[in-house]
Design brief:
Length: about 325
């Protein structure tokens, strides 16, 4: 008889067996997957675990502060807040190719993890919240040819020469199972219900070159959009929603002046496991109200579009 309780006990046993008395660092992104992995591993090995939250400067509005506060205050799991925005944004300067972005970010994550593996006194293991769909999607697309669609930084991006072994206790699970495991571990409901957020963060929601100015605009627009979704009670009906800031400026008119600002695209999908997805059927009223709010409240955007592509043929993220 298979239950999450039994799965949890078995996972804890396996982690202890794999790790022994070695030290482990766990990359924490603030998402459900890495948080569940961290809490699970902490139950298994206690203070042999240190979490590392890599703030790459590509998080959403207030996200870094919220994640750090939650882990320090609620869980009492030792946590390093690595503020590496300059490192990541510096390396991404002038980069517009999506795969180069992903690989650059993946490489820097490893660098930062290796640095902190040393700083905690020599961690032998790196833990990650890799899920089953991450594993298969980085090798082949379901039903399609065996090609890499995207380099997931927490799978394909890991260099062989990395001096750490991996602990990936969620590698056999789908998202809904990770959420069930999270409930079993006592994580708060509002946290378990959070939409997925990709490791490369806003970098892959800002097609083309990334600048701090663009990231600031994107953060504000995304916050307004998510606020709209929550106010309309739609958050839990949607698998994932975000704004992508498009690398194109368009002409508009506001008051009695001409504007020449960025266009953005709203994305919202329903899905069971992220492998396939349908765009969310918002009402015209919702879309109109949201577009008006974004244009009024976010300086730098004067045009809002809605992405009605399903997956396949689109992917959920734009890069
Ligand atoms: P795509 O865009 O491939 O995304 O349809 C499927 C799901 O995976 C998330 N995603 C990532 N998650 N590292 C992650 O941890 C990544 O590199 C990555 N790329 C995409 C995406 O947000 C969606 O939920």
């Amino acid at each position: 008889d298979w239950t999450m309780g039994a799965y949890k006990d078995e996972a804890i046993r396996k982690i202890r067996e794999q790790v022994g008395d070695a030290r482990v660092i766990c990359g924490l992104s603030g998402g459900v997957d890495s948080s569940v992995a961290a809490v699970l591993i902490h139950e298994a090995i206690g203070d042999q675990l240190t979490c590392v939250f890599v703030d790459h400067g590509l998080m959403r509005q207030n996200e870094a502060e919220e994640v750090v506060a939650m882990f320090r205050d609620t869980y009492n799991i030792p946590l390093i807040h690595a503020d590496e925005a300059d490192l990541f944004l510096g390396a991404l300067e002038g980069v517009s190719d999506p795969e180069v972005k992903r690989k650059t970010i993946g490489r820097l994550f490893i660098e930062v993890f290796e640095k902190h593996a040393k700083s905690v006194g020599g961690a032998e293991f790196l833990a990650q919240g890799t899920l089953y769909p991450d594993v298969i999607e980085s090798v082949s697309f379901s039903g399609g040819p065996s090609v890499t669609i995207k380099s997931h930084h927490n799978v394909g991006g890991l260099p062989e020469k990395m001096g750490m072994k991996l602990v990936e206790p969620l590698r056999e699970l789908f998202k809904d199972e990770v959420r069930a495991l999270g409930r079993e571990l006592g994580l708060p409901a509002h946290f378990i219900g959070r939409h997925p957020f990709p490791g490369p963060g806003l970098a892959i929601r800002c097609p083309g070159e990334i600048t701090r100015e663009k990231l600031e605009i994107l953060r504000k627009a995304d916050a307004v959009y998510i606020d709209q979704i929550r106010k309309h009670g739609l958050y839990d009906a949607i698998w994932q929603a975000f704004v992508a800031l498009l690398p194109v400026r368009t002409v508009g008119v506001m008051g009695d002046g001409r504007t020449y600002d960025y266009a953005c695209a709203l994305r919202a999908v329903t899905s069971v496991d992220g492998m396939t997805a349908d765009y969310y059927p918002f009402t015209h009223e919702f879309l109109g109200e949201t577009a008006t709010r974004i244009i009024n409240e976010v300086k730098g955007i004067n045009r809002v579009t809605y992405d009605i592509t399903s997956k396949p043929p689109g992917t959920i993220e734009w890069e």
